[in-house]
Amino acid sequence: MAVGQAIQGITNNLQPESNLKSTKRFLILEKIPGKETLASSSIVDKRLFEGETKLIAEQDDQFSLWSVKYSNGILPLPLQQRFTSFPKLFDFCSKYFETRGIRIATVID
User: Residue 55: beta bridge partners?
Assistant: First the structure.
């Protein structure tokens, strides 16, 4: 499945893909049923699923590069990079979290 199709499928629950125009988007995560939620060093912070900590994708105004951050806490090193487009960021984050038993459930613009 192409990244664009995945993003469209996820965002269709909330709004059409054409409305994704903001430079700050929230990626809502959920556990994959039947899988352990593991990080490279320990168990993933449960606050990501309880809503206390949010994963935020943000575009830099100066360079137009996308990056992710947590609303609380320290971002894991593999996620501390910049991307040239939101679909590339989405694809990388999807693969990163899937190996840890987590998926991106929705994208909020």
Answer: 27, 70
